[in-house]
Amino acid sequence: MQLSREALMRAYRQMKVIREFEERLHVEIQTGEIAGFTHLYCGQEAVAVGVCEHLDNDDKIVSTHRGHGHCLAKGCELNGMMAEIWGSREGLCKGKGGSMHIADIDQGMLGANGIVGAGAPIAVGAGISARIDGKGKVAIAFSGDGACNQGTTFEAMNMAVVTKAACIFVFENNHYSEHTGYEYAVGTSNDIASRAEAFGMKVWRGDGTDFFSVFETMREVLEYVRVPGNGPAAVEFDTERFFGHFEGDPQRYRGPGELDRIRETRDCLKKFRASVTGAGLLSDADLDALDADVAEAMEAAVAAARAAERPTPEDVLADVYISY
Amino acid sequence: MQLSREALMRAYRQMKVIREFEERLHVEIQTGEIAGFTHLYCGQEAVAVGVCEHLDNDDKIVSTHRGHGHCLAKGCELNGMMAEIWGSREGLCKGKGGSMHIADIDQGMLGANGIVGAGAPIAVGAGISARIDGKGKVAIAFSGDGACNQGTTFEAMNMAVVTKAACIFVFENNHYSEHTGYEYAVGTSNDIASRAEAFGMKVWRGDGTDFFSVFETMREVLEYVRVPGNGPAAVEFDTERFFGHFEGDPQRYRGPGELDRIRETRDCLKKFRASVTGAGLLSDADLDALDADVAEAMEAAVAAARAAERPTPEDVLADVYISY
Amino acid sequence: MAKMMYRDAVVSTIAEEMERDPNVVVLGEDVVGGMGTAGGPEAIGGIWSTSTGLFGKFGADRVIDTPISESAIIGAASGLALTGKRPIAELMFADFIGVSLDQIWNQMGKFRYMFGGKTKCPAVIRMAYGAGYNAAAQHSQSVHQILTGMPGLKVVMPSTPADVKGLLRTAIRDDDPVIFLEHKALYGMSGEVPDDPEFMIPFGHARLSRAGQDVTIVSSGLLLGFCEAVADKLAAEGIGCDVIDLRSTSPLDEEAILDSVEVTGRLIVVDEAPPRCGLAGDICALVANKAFASLKAPPQAVTPPHTPIPFARELESAYLPSTDKIEAAVRKVLAYR
Amino acid sequence: MAKMMYRDAVVSTIAEEMERDPNVVVLGEDVVGGMGTAGGPEAIGGIWSTSTGLFGKFGADRVIDTPISESAIIGAASGLALTGKRPIAELMFADFIGVSLDQIWNQMGKFRYMFGGKTKCPAVIRMAYGAGYNAAAQHSQSVHQILTGMPGLKVVMPSTPADVKGLLRTAIRDDDPVIFLEHKALYGMSGEVPDDPEFMIPFGHARLSRAGQDVTIVSSGLLLGFCEAVADKLAAEGIGCDVIDLRSTSPLDEEAILDSVEVTGRLIVVDEAPPRCGLAGDICALVANKAFASLKAPPQAVTPPHTPIPFARELESAYLPSTDKIEAAVRKVLAYR
Ligand SMILES: Cc1ncc(C[n+]2csc(CCOP(=O)(O)OP(=O)(O)O)c2C)c(N)n1
Ligand SMILES: Cc1ncc(C[n+]2csc(CCOP(=O)(O)OP(=O)(O)O)c2C)c(N)n1
Ligand SMILES: [Mg+2]
Ligand SMILES: [Mg+2]
Asked: I want to staple B240 with a disulfide (CB 3.0 to 4.6 A). Which of A221, B262, C279, D134 is the partner?
């Protein structure tokens, strides 16, 4: 289906926001200003955006340790995200969560997660909720190729089938879990989708570096899962991460030239640009303008995060319900 | 392959021992003498025996809450088993384990288990051990149709494939997990084996009420898994349990006449007798003699268990390595 | 007031709350029972009969039978709670936190704080705990000590049918995750239960089940009855015991304990968890710290030994704190000079 | 004596023991690193560099990289241990006991007792624990309080490179399951380590890291250093502190603690776990019970508050017991009359 000019612009902008967010964090982290573990989503933008562009606030997503892209795509506010990663009081989670624990329930973003595989069961509950409510809403669990080996992920898939949860398991196969290749760690090597299928779900596959592949695949998946009673589905997207597992990872597990190659041939932003300009849907100038717009927003977000109020020791004791 | 007369007698006797053990417990439990939860294996004997007749003490098995059959088939001593269930000091585990926690490491019986799904990961370790040792030994994990929905079982299957563990997952599908039907709880309903296959294993299927089906299937499976480097395999046996989930279960989930029907048409002992007498391999008299022999052994075991020494309060503190 | 059993107090409270609030849903293994069988739904309920009749009354959307997948059960409860429902999940045995702890500890217990206070997760996790059934090492454990130590969880342990009613209603209406621990040896206990459909007991309010001036005994669950028996016996000798039923271990009614010890100067905590890093030590330490000046004798924990729970009848009885051991502890603190 | 880092003490001890005993095997996520990648095995080791070089030296049969499947990792360790191997399993973060607790608590910890004493399960589970990295609520936790409460587990917490060496060797040679907790903020700590290839420190023997007459401070891990700093500062004022490094929490060196308190009469326990049902309360209760007559002031726990661990630098610092808070606690017990 042909997307409107507006929709194309929006999709590009969303991907670009994630890209810039991550590229900028990659730089800022070197300065030591940002604390904790940060896992960058750079390279996988087409998945988050290709999925979330189909969703509204009543559709839910559950994310991972590599969650910035999902958050931004689902509508978490840029400044709040940046401030959170900076550990500020003005962050989306008041500086208590940080990179791995961003949530925004009002946006249907039920949480990034530091525990690999922990999100899928939560999505099943949200998917049961959606089924009960009968309004054609869905819950989506993002998982990595590594997470697909966690018992919780398997349990969630079976339980979703049994309870006919309106739940979609989106597997982002970026080929690595930390420093280990998926060909080693996933017994079925390059076929995570078939494993999901064996649980009794319909499955799809798509190119996770191509926005249009993700978007069209998800259109089909969602058409299916939004029908009350159809139950869950799974999708595997083949994708790439452009940075290390976390910031600081020397990535010696990569092949020679691998990073250059994937940046060159598997960059969802480049592909998108080539596709829409080639088809005459948008011009380079349109996209450049969006780039500039995003760059400006990012600058502002970083400046705001840097200037934002810091948490106080008393904040440690806020938002608990039992104190000792 | 044709089994020797001796092997046939042994297989029958092993199944009969389990049958009598369980039928007798079913009666004794009514008297209130036996404490705790007891899950009877009656009806599934062909699986335990058809599997374990291929094994020696260096092959390992890991069992479940419904473990008596596996224990007896693997060589745990009858009197020690009975005494354990009676909670005696002379029991295989000195009365500390009871029905759900019988182990006999020397026999390669690594433990029954009260936690559904907990055995499979342990079998993977034993299977890695076997692979490392390179002597063609194997480790077998028995699991039920209910256990096949536990995350641990899935993790174990993937990990066995990845580590090329000499491990066999034997699924005994007796159609129920407690009071719930497998058609409800297993998303793929009657195809547990395919789910295992999706992890990248070779799988087999067999009739778990027919000793010969189990035995021949396991011959193939073992031939495969005993080859160093081949890695794990899985088998699903369709079988029946003749009693309730545990003793005391009114079994209202069964269909009308179901118990009569399965006792009539799906009884592994009856089938075995019909088969071997029909083929003229053993006579009814041979089998009757074994029956009598087993009945006598059982009588003696119960009498011994009843007379066996009871544990003392001081025993609570024995076999711990830290006391406070 | 109606007389009812502990287990019936569970199921009737759930039914009443489901009636009142359409968002309350129940999930767990065999909470319907008979699904996928010839007998059909409710052919048989769960093994504790704590969900009997719910499916018939409220239907498949609100009473959800699950596979044997405890992590997914708790995770699903979180997902339901984050999306407007009020799930009551059942772990058939508390021991099964072993296969689902992450979802309790690292997930639902942390959402509110970790997400900056904006998140409600109104889930109740019911669990049958405790020894007394000769169910051995993996089906008899107490877990309140583990869960009480985990910030973000409320932990409730009713000791009577009336407390089940009042505390479970509070739990269901609470906006945060509540661990509701039902002692399996108490399911058959009978007692008077208020009829008031709004009868609620707030968390953090202990109950004084016996009053005396000489010794403070703190307990809950099955062992509370043992403590009461000891108190009654000693009362006949003129020894007065305050017996405090904690009702909830988190929040903890520190005041009730400290007030009592200020009078008695002597403390015994009787608890079913193993001795190390448990609730008994926790409360002894609290008192030693906050009522130091009142103490006339060393605060004394009465717990099982540091061993797994043995199977045989004789062993389990010897493992559990008995009335004899409790009585001996009382006499010991009384004799202290 | 050689100077080495805490993390190198881990890996060198493992290597030495693997050299000595062919049954010692290592398993865990990324313990090889680079498996299934273009870079190949050992392209990169695990994130803590605590298995660097092992694969190259001992090969694929003895250094086993695993999928992200913690239950299967611990379960496999049990299965290996029951069949003659001596596995050392790594949980990358102690927080991951959430997804593997059953295998630790209900399985390996219980085999020996539950199976009547005939079963050996010589497995070591190494885990990186503790705060200090701003890794937030799910990657910063202390778990010794949870595991210490579980009968059947030995729990070890080295605070120096030398103790890593001596305790890890003991752990590997021990015939029962040992939980070996490495504080992630100490991995880079340097210290003298004995060269003796048989250097072992028995469990249950605390170390007196500072000696004084006025206050007993009990601690371990990262916070031990904080306590030492406070003791040193106060020593300059003439206040003497015994600082006791527990080394293992189960078995616990009760004697070392009680002997010290008999002299000082004042106890502070500084621990990184949350306040309820934790190790600090456990030790305060022990002392209140067994050294009651010696106590001159209320035993005092210094712990983080009962909250999940917050992310931001300011928040994590405020969460952790600081030297200021420890000092204040010392002064408080000293001032008690
Ligand atoms: C239960 C658990 N085990 C291990 C980890 C450590 N860890 C964090 S991310 C990660 C790799 C995840 O790989 P994948 O699912 O493919 O996601 P990706 O990092 O590629 O996005 C690991 C092992 C964790 N956080 N949680
Ligand atoms: C982790 C866990 N969850 C639930 C239970 C309670 N339980 C014991 S046996 C059982 C059913 C198991 O079904 P299946 O695996 O088919 O074995 P079967 O009883 O049919 O032999 C359940 C739910 C348990 N023991 N452990
Ligand atoms: Mg990945
Ligand atoms: Mg079954």
From this structure: B262
